Give the backbone structure.
Amino acid sequence: MYISMSLDGYIAKPDGDISFLSAMEQEGQDYGYAEFNKTVDTVIIGRRSYDKVLSLGYEYPHSDKDVYIITRTPRPPKGSFKYYSGSLKTLITDLKSRPGKNIYCDGGSLIVNELLKDNLIDEFIISIIPIILGDGIELFNRGIAEMAIKLKGFKKFKKGLVQLHYEKILS
Ligand SMILES: NC(=O)c1ccc[n+]([C@@H]2O[C@H](COP(=O)([O-])OP(=O)(O)OC[C@H]3O[C@@H](n4cnc5c(N)ncnc54)[C@H](OP(=O)(O)O)[C@@H]3O)[C@@H](O)[C@H]2O)c1
């Protein structure tokens, strides 16, 4: 998972607004995203997050990767992007059983929390945006199971963003 959240744990405002992220834009600074992308060959993203990118007038990137848009409504593929309506556990288990690079979970909250139910997230790269939103779409839902993690690294950036990298402690 590679995601951004406010200091109080929200990935978007209640209505899905993510304009608070634009305060972090800085010429020549991608917060390690290009390097991270080199480690990835598969992306999974919730249908709402995917639609949000399109609604902002962008094309969804990652056309060089296998992209699964997670939805409960089966739909035909969109170019090289596949809609997926089956079990997330089955999808991840199947992808992990094949040789390949990392699988990137691009959010949103519903997908992250669904994956956490089955302990399917191995690494968490979380960029803390220096803002308190007070309300919104929370990254981690209340009631998720306790999970032991360890800090792999952290970076501080000029705009005040702090990026934390955790990994699951394998039991
Ligand atoms: N700050 C960041 O870095 C960041 C990153 C990503 C996203 N976001 C923001 O997060 C917001 C969206 O997050 P979200 O939590 O509302 O939605 P989401 O997780 O992106 O997508 C939710 C959708 O995924 C599908 N879904 C969820 N669970 C499923 C399951 N078990 N099986 C099959 N399909 C399932 C459903 O699609 P259908 O309705 O089609 O059935 C559901 O409506 C957007 O505002 C986005 O911009 C922020």
